[in-house]
Amino acid sequence: MFLVEGNKTIVELLNSEYKIKQIFSTDPLGLGHSAFPETLITEIRPTELQKISFLKHPKDSVALVELNEQPVLSAEPFNLVLDGVQDPGNLGTIMRLADWFGIPQLICSEDTVDCFNPKVVQASMGSFTRVKVLYLDLPRFLRESPNVAVGTDMQGENLYKFEFPSKVNLILGNEGRGIREETQAELERTLTIPQFGTGPRTESLNVSMATGIILGQYFSQG
Fold first, then answer.
1. Three-state SS at 12
2. CA 20 to 30 Å from 111, out of 26, 137, 182, 204?
3. What confidence tens digit (pLDDT) does each residue in 121-141 have?
């Protein structure tokens, strides 16, 4: 099982395949949905919520939710592939981006942060109910996939001049070390987000920021 915090996100579970086991709430009426049986909700005090929440400033409710079976990989013309992303906020934000752009699945290396980590669930803002996450052996997946493996690299082709293939696996790497060597060996092309302006500038972009920029450019090509 895993935890989902906040009335808004908990209500979104009603339209998903996830089954709620129990809801602990300081404001049961705030859930505002008749679809929740009364037996499912236990009213608790704010001090009790503080003890069971993973947040510094917990919201109104916490739901205990049953894990589903491992999702099945589907053949998609575009896949987001994450190699060793460790920050829960980054994974949650990338899930939210995938949801926004209509990307149904994320492919992750086996050491990528757990998508049911409470901080990931919180950062995804409910997108975890619509975007499936699969943890796979990345080099093997890339070798067997018919999609062209495109990775991010500081020395890659200019994103704004890059013509994406019709079928793409877009690989983004770890926050500190980037894409690991065994994954790099499977890349067929690389791209970079060029810097603009003059003077001192940041050395790199946050991986979730970079993902948003690349997806915007990819989908602008229609």
1. helix
2. 204
3. 999 999 999 999 999 999 999
